[in-house]
Amino acid sequence: MKVIVVGSSHGGYETVRGILAAHPETEIQWYEKGDFLSFLSCGMQLYLEGTVKDVNAVSYATPAGMRAQGVHVYTEQEITTVHPDRQTVHVVNHATGEERDEGYDKLVLAVGAVPFDLPVPGHDLENVYAMRGRDWAIKLKAKTVDPAIKNVVVIGSGYIGIEAAEVFAKAGKHVTVVDMLPRLLSLYLDAEFTDTLTQTMADHGIQAATGQGVKAFEGKHGKVTKLITDQGEYPADLVISAAGIRANTGFLKDVVALDDHGLIKINDYLQTSDPNIYAVGDATLVPFAPTGQPNRIALATNARRQGRIAAKNIFGDQVTMPTVSGSSALSVFDYHFASTGIKAGTSEKLGVKSQSVLVTDTAQPAFVPDAAGNAKVWFKLTFDPADGRILGAQIMSKKDVTANINTISLAVQAKLTVYDLAYTDFFFQPGFDRPWNIMNIAAQKAIDSLK
């Protein structure tokens, strides 16, 4: 069998890896439009801050390593057209200018997404950057040490935007984060968490400009100097746009069925409207465990699960994509937080009735001093007020307790209730935690509230 995989990030890589593991005799052609294979944008902050020294190390695989396993790797080669009726793709080699057609038995589209360009005046000025991909990583690294860059404006307060803000604040720049939403990180955390994080960012030179829409960029001599919103103006020697992503599916409009957002429609087995074409990653929806409905959750973990399942199904297995809870985590200066599932701030939009309880405690018994690693913990549990079914949770502390969210993710997927969680067996050792895990305490509080 000949399988063509388009895209080399999380979903594409896992598809290739899955095929090699189960069917190493397969002819695999792996295509990457750029000149670098499998760059991981989620590792960009570690490179920009110097934790990872070599930008080329932020990758799953190398062409040489994959070719040694029998994979035909093609970088700087773009698939511009797909002909499902003939089961062929048209390939443009950007290095040589040559073009050719390739046939396939199965095609896997891991085309991902690209940064959303704000359609406002001045968006094409110099020093208006994105934060996605190896090329942008190299350019941004140079700006962290550029003495001409004093004021940085970040558009968007999701994970990418906050990572960018922290990078440049640590580099000694004054940073402003602009977002249309009323709170920084509001898609991931409720106000009890974001209030503390916003103050922490302010203490480190990051100004929040929330509830504001971008109207224009202004510049001099072709370089950006100012960002204008509907409420104010902000000096900017550098603008980093992290205002969302759009599916990279323009070339697929007449090939497979797309939804009104340009996302590829897939079934439970990751097949598109053409049964010989599969799709994985950020250009698709995933089944969301709290609701059972498809949702857009652009996370590496989801893309990798899809890639592995696609690798099984193209050979005839009938494996459905499992539901996911949308679990994620981030550090903001000294704080570490994680969330999963539904939050009080997102339940209404999802059409779900929810109730929540907030618990604050210390990570370890009170007799353990902060100097020994103890710290305050915030934990918020969200559940169905009708039956107590767990819908999601958020956690935050200066101590890394984020792994608790993995337990809640499993509880959401298993449809456990607060009654199940209230007395679940968790270990206790004062060097690590409390006699009652904070998840137990929150579930017990939830039961009281339901009474």
UniProtKB/TrEMBL annotation:
Residues 331-433 form the Pyridine nucleotide-disulphide oxidoreductase dimerisation domain. InterPro entries: FAD-bd_OxRdtase, FAD/NAD-bd_sf, FAD/NAD-binding_dom, FAD/NAD-linked_Rdtase_dimer_sf, Pyr_nucl-diS_OxRdtase_dimer. Gene3D superfamilies: 3.30.390.30, FAD/NAD(P)-binding domain (3.50.50.60). Keywords: FAD, Flavoprotein, Oxidation, Oxidoreductase, Redox-active center. The keyword Calcium does not apply. Its cofactor is FAD. It comes from the Bacteria. Pfam families: Pyr_redox_2 (PF07992), Pyr_redox_dim (PF02852). Residues 1-307 form the FAD/NAD(P)-binding domain. Belongs to the class-III pyridine nucleotide-disulfide oxidoreductase family. This is FAD-dependent oxidoreductase. It comes from Lactiplantibacillus dongliensis.
